[in-house]
Amino acid sequence: METNRVEAFSDGVLAIAITIMVLELKVPDTPDLHGLAEFLPTLLTYVLSFVYIGIYWTNHHHLMHLTQRIDGAALWANLNLLFWLSIVPFTTRWMDESSLAKLPVLVYGINLLAAAVSYTILQARLIRIQGAESRLARAIRNDAKGKWSMGLYVVGSAGAFLSPWVSVAAYVAVAAIWIVPDRRIERAVAAGDDGA
Amino acid sequence: METNRVEAFSDGVLAIAITIMVLELKVPDTPDLHGLAEFLPTLLTYVLSFVYIGIYWTNHHHLMHLTQRIDGAALWANLNLLFWLSIVPFTTRWMDESSLAKLPVLVYGINLLAAAVSYTILQARLIRIQGAESRLARAIRNDAKGKWSMGLYVVGSAGAFLSPWVSVAAYVAVAAIWIVPDRRIERAVAAGDDGA
Amino acid sequence: METNRVEAFSDGVLAIAITIMVLELKVPDTPDLHGLAEFLPTLLTYVLSFVYIGIYWTNHHHLMHLTQRIDGAALWANLNLLFWLSIVPFTTRWMDESSLAKLPVLVYGINLLAAAVSYTILQARLIRIQGAESRLARAIRNDAKGKWSMGLYVVGSAGAFLSPWVSVAAYVAVAAIWIVPDRRIERAVAAGDDGA
Amino acid sequence: METNRVEAFSDGVLAIAITIMVLELKVPDTPDLHGLAEFLPTLLTYVLSFVYIGIYWTNHHHLMHLTQRIDGAALWANLNLLFWLSIVPFTTRWMDESSLAKLPVLVYGINLLAAAVSYTILQARLIRIQGAESRLARAIRNDAKGKWSMGLYVVGSAGAFLSPWVSVAAYVAVAAIWIVPDRRIERAVAAGDDGA
């Protein structure tokens, strides 16, 4: 089974998830600087979620690039990841509309954690299909970033009981870690492309 | 006529159908556990419909993989299937907003039944185009799962007159049957890929 | 310049236009047969617009299949067509919410007419680029269906001043004409595929 | 790393951004000419934003056509461009709902300016990757249109303090400049296609 249609479908879901969030942005109550100031937190949560989905798309892109074969289980692992990413617009909205109340901030963290775990499951399944000596397996020997992210999500989710800003700081930190695309895979891709 | 653009368009429609449902999720009234508890049934109907569309996407993926040629009638059989899947977000919402009232639960079942019948029509047309000796025809000799599903949809729809939970149980059972992707086709694909 | 990305973008816009209409379907006021009966006209306008966009997708698919080369003017002719199709959900909604009032029914007809004219312009441009001896040019020698459609749209739009049902009848008639895919092109495609 | 999936994802985001704006169009209050007249400015802002996103899609199409290789930085430059384009529906809506108030008109101009700057950054990165002697580099020797656009956006944004019509005139002027697709690239493409 080839990966191109999985990529196309994933691209579709991610493109929609990243774009429809804008539909939910309510325009400021007043067309002045005061209205704009009140709108800023909403915009920033939107930017954060945009960046998150952008990160997943980038990593998914790299991951699939090193994948030649998939199977039915991998399709469902991918759908599972898409599920958690598809509800990011919803948890973002809840967090935002509640003005960073404790529970929605916690739920947002759990959503991101579930997405990270789902990504790890998908990655593990793909490595298993490609084999231990595949380029993919060699590229992901040590998934330090993935582990850091999951740790930070737990910290961020738990931090909601202290202050939402602890959570936001943790979530922003994860985005910062990942915004540099996965050089390990990129190197492997480059090496493979040169070698091919 | 090739299948790639049919796949791309179908991927687009299914990606949107699976994703826009989240736009319709209203955030809980209060940002606390009580609000979250009230929200749970909504989330579960969302999950159920996500899984259904995921199942159709997976099976459509397998079906098209074994299809080399299509014609105008197949295009319309495909559009017919996409129509029924595209209104799943609507019937889901109605069922959910009515708190599982009799008629919306019945309508949801009819929607799923219509999608299943449409899929069978598309499949029959594609088999006819590929020929009785094609890999597709051999892979779908006996469509037991398809028949079970349709039976369960009828049970589920009728069950709405007894209790919505009978219906929900039937609908969940169909999802459970299908969540294992179509091994018959998968085997045929694998065999074909090996043989090619 | 190749056509594949034009197809992908057009597929995206059409997939969205055909799918988002469902977002605008308001659930019936009451979860009973009375509510369902009141909802029927809304469902039927939805079906009609779904069929229209399906027709355009099918014909666009056939048209692009016979097209090897495009240019900047063709890109804009295509965007022009997509514009008119992208506002079909809006004119559909207006017609429906006004309960088939005169002006919205007229505007719906003008929308469909503009889409038909845009399609004709795109087709003419593509024929010009491919050349008078191309398979595309030979397949579209005489565009009887296109001319009938435009005539019926004018009748339907004007008919809004008599009764909305005249308009609806004319719009349904056009859909009926086209629901049979363009056999001329299909024959040419088949001939080309055989000859190739 | 190849460009096809970047194109697919960008097509998805742009197709959604260009299409969902219609979801936000509120139907006229009354189904008569008065209602239609009141609706006209809304329609015109919609058309303007549709044309803008169409322009970006067209130019992106040309740009990617001359691009053979991308890297992680280019992926993020592309996501940055998509971000600014994805919020065009939002700034359009704000400008429209405020009846062209000063601040929203200014913000719309800043949005377009940010998109133009992002496009320039993406283009610069792609030229750097392809090399100074690449077809892309030679095609974009002198980016007069890009510079004119940015100047006009600044004029338009600043003009909001005088009159929204100054802004609108500037924004329409930029669209007019670009609606003619980038002949420089088109010529290079044609030359390359002929030479290939």
Largest sheet of chain A: none
Global shape of chain A: elongated
Using the CA coordinates, give the radius of gyration of chain A. 18 Å
As residue ranges, the low-confidence spans of chain A are none
The percent of residues in helical segments of chain A reads: over 70%
Quaternary class: homotetramer
Distance between the termini of chain A: 22 Å
Structural class based on helices, strands and sheet pairing of chain A: mainly alpha
User: Can you count the beta strands of chain A?
Assistant: 0
Strand percentage of chain A lies at under 5%
Family (chains A, B, C, D): Belongs to the TMEM175 family.
Keywords (chains A, B, C, D): Ion channel, Ion transport, Membrane, Potassium, Potassium channel, Potassium transport, Transmembrane, Transmembrane helix, Transport
InterPro entries (chains A, B, C, D): TMEM175-like (IPR010617)
Protein name (chains A, B, C, D): TMEM175 family protein
Descriptive account of the structure:
- The structure is a homotetramer of 196-residue chains.
- The first copy, chain A, has 196 residues and is mostly helical.
- Chain A has one domain (4-195).
- Helix content of chain A is 79%, strand content 0%.
- Chain A has 9 helices and no strands.
- The first copy, chain A, has helices at residues 4-20, 33-65, 72-86, 88-97, 102-130, 135-139, 144-159, 164-179, 183-195.
- In chain A, α7 (144-159) runs antiparallel to α8.
- Chains in contact: A-B, A-D, B-C, C-D.
- The C-D interface holds C 1, 5-6, 8-9, 12-13, 15-17, 20, 23-24, 71-72, 75-76, 79, 82-83, 86-87, 89-90, 93-94, 97-98, 101-104, 107 and D 7-8, 11-12, 14-16, 18-20, 22-23, 25, 27-28, 31-33, 35-36, 46-47, 50, 54, 57-58, 61, 64-65, 179-183, 186, 189-190, 193.
- Chains A, B, C, D: It is found in: Membrane.
- Chains A, B, C, D: Belongs to the TMEM175 family.
- Chains A, B, C, D: Keywords: Ion channel, Ion transport, Membrane, Potassium, Potassium channel, Potassium transport, Transmembrane, Transmembrane helix, Transport.
- Chains A, B, C, D: InterPro entries: TMEM175-like (IPR010617).
